[in-house]
Amino acid sequence: MKRSKSSRRWLDEHVNDPYVKRAQKDGLRSRSSYKLIELNEKDKLIRPGMLIMDLGSAPGGWSQVAGKLVGEKGRVIATDILPMDPLDNVDFIQGDFTEDAVFQQLLDQLDGRQPDLIVSDIAPNLSGIAVADQASSMYLVELTLDMVRKVLKPAGNYVVKVFQGEGSDAFLKDVRTSFEKVVVRKPAASRPRSNEVYLVAKGFKGQDADA
Fold first, then answer.
1. Cα(120)–Cα(51) distance, rounded to whole angstroms?
2. What one-character DSSP code corresponds to residue 52?
3. Measured between alpha carbons, how far is 38 from 119 in angstroms, rounded to an integer?
4. Residue set of the binding site for S-adenosyl-L-methionine
5. What pLDDT is attached to residue 211?
6. Catalytic residue among 42, 44, 68, 161, which?
7. Residue 135: which domain range?
8. How many domains, in total, are found in the chain?
9. What is the C-alpha separation between 30 and 14, in angstroms, rounded?
């Protein structure tokens, strides 16, 4: 089957991408690992011993980085609808975190603890229809914010990928109601033509902040 121009361009970009090559050399699962590494360097998000939740974690690029940084005394609880190979210091739950059964598994894994940090590099399966893809993306990030408001520790932090477009400004305003400080970042590993940015939200005001 003949590849489309866009898929050929993506393949060429991917094969020649310095971050893809670097990830292979460094033994990292994905080029997106460098996005979290850069965000962590700028915003001092992860420390040894922390409890972190990674929403939409497969193939594990962010969980791998977070697991190394929290060390043996810390833990990453990761979840995705896709399978993910095991990682050190990471507990993985496969399923849709918005479903009651999976949410309960996550709560069981937390065992009464509250995460210090929730991260999400989640993205929908793209249809190629820009309006539909943007709507799907915003729906997913809103679900991650719902999770944050349910389980994040007061004064905890939240990092989420957002595609700029319809709904993204309103989402940013919504996040600001629950956090003391929110900054927008574009890591070097984000492809220049991508409209993705990362919201780094610090100082969660607690579950009642938006009530």
1. 14
2. E
3. 14
4. 60, 62, 80, 96, 121
5. 42
6. 161
7. 31-204
8. 1
9. 11
Where residue 114 sits, what CATH number does that domain have? 3.40.50.150
Query: What integer pLDDT is reported at residue 139 of this predicted model?
Result: 95
Q: How far is CA 131 from CA 47, 89, 165, 195, 198, in A?
A: 38, 38, 9, 13, 20
Residue whose C-alpha is closest to residue 191's, from 3, 16, 5, 8: 16
Q: Is 186 within a domain?
A: yes
pLDDT at 3: 56
Model pTM greater than 0.85?
yes
For residue 18, being part of any structural domain is answered with: no
- In tens digits, the chain (211 residues) has pLDDT values of 455 555 555 455 555 676 566 666 666 667 888 999 999 999 999 999 999 999 999 999 999 999 999 999 999 999 999 999 999 999 999 999 999 999 999 999 999 999 999 999 998 888 889 999 999 999 999 999 999 999 999 999 999 999 999 999 999 999 999 999 999 999 988 877 889 999 999 999 987 654 4
Query: What's the DSSP call for residue 188?
Result: T
Q: Which residues are annotated as a binding site?
A: 60, 62, 80, 96, 121
Say if strands 157-163 and 196-204 run parallel, antiparallel, or are unpaired: antiparallel
Tokens of 52: 């972190």
Q: Which residues pair with 196 in a beta bridge?
A: 163
Say how many C-beta atoms besides its own lie within 10 A of residue 110's C-beta. Answer: 15
Q: Distance between CA atoms of 122 and 160, rounded to whole angstroms?
A: 8
DSSP 99: S
Active site residue 161: yes
